[in-house]
Amino acid sequence: MRTGAVGVSVTVERPGAVSGLDWTVFRGERIDVMRALGDEHSDAIMAWRALVGGSWSGLIEYADGFAAQRFDAIVASSKRLLPTESAELAALADGAGIPERDLWVLNLRGDLGRDGTGCSDLAGLAADGGVLLGHNEDGDAEVRELIRLITLDIDGDPCVTVLWYPGMLPANSFVTTSAGLSFGMDHLPTAVPNLGGAGRHLVARHAQRQTDGAAARAALTDVPCAGAFAFNMIDEPGGRADVIENVSGRVAAARAETAAIPLRHVNHPCLVPDGTRGIPDDDRWLAESRGRGALLEAGSVRAATAADVMSALRAPGVLNTEEHLYTYATTVVDTARGRVLVRGHGDEWEGDLAAFARGRRAAPVVTA
Predict the structure, then answer these.
(1) Contact 40/4 with Cβ under 8 angstroms?
(2) CA dihedral 202, 205, 209, 210 (to 10 degrees)
(3) pLDDT at site 2
């Protein structure tokens, strides 16, 4: 492990790559940590921002043009509803040396209107006790070499380890915390955003900062998203697995009741009534999501162990390999065994879950 100090209040550690994913750990006070995150990875953030014809530059054109009024409204609403998370975003931009507005544009992807697709999740009760969560993180292949792991150990918050897109608030992908909570977020389409809602990345970050499952679930249901996410969540202390859809503030949830029937989610609303209103039924991304969802269901008839979940998520048709939709990594949490599995660019890695959430690389504890 390499360790170094940044400023006077932040320590940066590098535990070593996990399945081809570099990993950086930041420990200290909130604003200093977020500023250090931006500074440490400014080159990666700027590399994405500078891509000619890339997704980030396209979002800026959209926010400057057709979506200008809704962009301004959602930024203002996000700052009002979630001031702590908004301040974190501003500090990240400051550390990276990039205009704060540019980072807001990136982080409101999916909140300004219809935007792509990506990610698959399985969550449920394990056959031998505990809860399971598996997540495929999907996106544009343009950033596959930039995706990495980070851990934020912020004074007063649970530690969080996140699969991170440089420039995004660390919250929108796979996250596990020292409070015994793990999350996988799935993009959901929305044609008309809630201009009085908060950016969905900020809602996710708000929930992941909570110290128990009840508070996290309340955060995901009480704060309206401007856009839409399916929040797949497991709560180890509570022994439960849930999926919460927040579609522009319209919320519906389901809880796993038996190990025989896991919760499955991809990229179309399944719980909120008329969740795809305003989006044509022949939308190509809806069709892709429904097809992928059917394959995930067929491949997870048995999903009672971590190996079952990993296998279902890595199956052809669920694992994405195209330039426009690419699976960066698959992660599986198994609370009964205290293990996390990560499959990125390299071989599958298995580690101790509690250590991983706290930014430490450790082999799983073997129990009799």
Answers:
(1) no
(2) 80
(3) 40
79-124 pLDDT, tens digit per residue, is 999 999 999 999 999 999 999 999 999 999 999 988 778 999 999 9
Write down the pTM of the prediction: 0.95
> Which amino acid makes up residue 358?
R
CA distances from 313 to 42, 182, 234, 241, 310 (A): 32, 17, 17, 17, 5
Degrees to nearest 5, angle at CA 183 with 203 and 180: 110
Nearest one of 359, 348, 338 to 132, comparing CA atoms: 338
Q: What is the DSSP string of 151-218?
A: EEEETTS--EEEEE-TTS-TTSSEEEETTSEEEEEEE---SS--TTSB-HHHHHHHHHT-SSHHHHHH
- 286-322, pLDDT tens digit by residue? 999 999 999 999 999 888 899 999 999 999 999 999 9
The DSSP letter of residue 141 is: G
Half-sphere exposure of 61 (CA within 13 A, CB side): 7
Distance CA 249, CA 190 (A): 11
- Planar angle of CA 262, 265, 271, nearest 5 degrees: 95
**Residues 173, 243: Cα–Cα separation, whole Å:** 14
Distances (CA, A) of 250 to 35, 226, 236, 244: 34, 10, 27, 10
State the average pLDDT over residues 118-140: 94
